[in-house]
Amino acid sequence: MEIDSQKTAYVDLHIHSTASDGSLSPLQIIRTAKNIGLRAIAITDHDTVDGSAQAMASARDSGLEILSGVEISADYTPGTMHILGYLIDVDDPCLNETLRKLQKSRDNRNHEIIERLRLLGIDIRFDEVVEVSGGGQVGRPHIARVLVQKGAVQTMDEAFARFLKKSGPAYVPRYRLSPSEAIQTILRAGGVPVLAHPFTLNAKSEAELEAIIADLKQSGLKGLEVYYPDHSVVRTALYERLARRHGLLMTGGTDFHGAAKPGVFIGVGRGEMRIPYRLVEELKRGGRGDS
Ligand code: AMP
Ligand code: ZN
Ligand code: FE
Ligand code: FE
């Protein structure tokens, strides 16, 4: 299926693979993206470049352009702050050292979450969680899936709402980079740092959001994820305005997680997204610092 009969080329710059909490492998993602006729994609797994590196190695000469990518969770309250990194050198030693630290802390935390769930009377073991994770990095969504499988909850949402969310009884914090550390980590690896899905910051007003963005720009932020399945038309227009006003690049992606996030599809989100290749060209120019 071609997603459009016209000649415009489309992209998806926010995709999760089995290297983190997505349900498709990098190879399955490449195949799907080619089938629907995308021109470029970026696999942006949480705190790992394994999926991205694997995709780049296997997509050579395939006609599909793969941009390197990662999504780093920064330390931020009361909302959630994710910083996307594009065009990073996936072999950068500093980047990999930092990611290893984040992964180690995730690993410790997963065991603690399981322990807490067991204390709450749920019979769950770490190896059951590893089994549903598909061999990549384990996260709360995998734990949620096991809770569903066991009938402890009906849905993933219920697993988060009752146990795993920030204020939930099984929540355990983990080591996170500060926003500026996350941005610097990406810049030092030659990448372009972009604020993902700005609405998850839960800013109380447009002015507050703008102040946060101005602050991040001071720390080296280069772009905003403007196009995203859960962004209303009004929100999208606001983010476009903020990007222009602060000289930031605009990116877009579906945050595809496969079966882990039903109803969101590669390239088209909930059906209506079309992200033009032009954004990739601007990203590459911005990455060279001549934007
Ligand atoms: P972690 O990376 O282990 O901290 O888990 C966070 C991830 O859980 C997020 O990136 C989301 O993909 C996922 N997540 C958060 N809330 C929910 C929810 N209600 N249902 C399913 N997945 C969720
Ligand atoms: Zn995720
Ligand atoms: Fe995110
Ligand atoms: Fe994401």
What are the key terms here?
291 residues, alpha/beta, TIM Barrel, DNA polymerase, domain 1, 2 domains, five-stranded mixed beta sheet, four-stranded mixed beta sheet, 10 helices, globular, binds adenosine monophosphate, binds zinc ion, binds fe (iii) ion
Helix content: 40-55%
First CA to last CA: what distance? 35 Å
Q: What is the count of β-strands? A: 9
CATH-defined topology of the largest domain: TIM Barrel
> CATH first level of the largest domain: which class?
Alpha Beta
User: CATH superfamily of the largest domain, please?
Assistant: Metal-dependent hydrolases
Return the average pLDDT rounded to an integer.
94
User: Order of strands in the sheet with the most strands?
Assistant: 4-5-6-7-8
Low-pLDDT parts are none
Give the structure's gist in a few sentences.
41% of the residues lie in helices and 14% in strands. It has a five-stranded mixed β-sheet with strand order 4-5-6-7-8. Strands 3-2-1-9 form a four-stranded mixed β-sheet.
Question: What does this molecule look like?
Answer:
41% of the residues lie in helices and 14% in strands. With 291 residues, it is of the alpha/beta class. The protein is globular. The two termini are 35 Å apart. 44% of the residues are buried. Bound molecules: adenosine monophosphate (AMP), zinc ion and fe (iii) ion (2 copies). Zinc ion binds next to loops. One fe (iii) ion is lined by residues 14, 16, 71, 255.
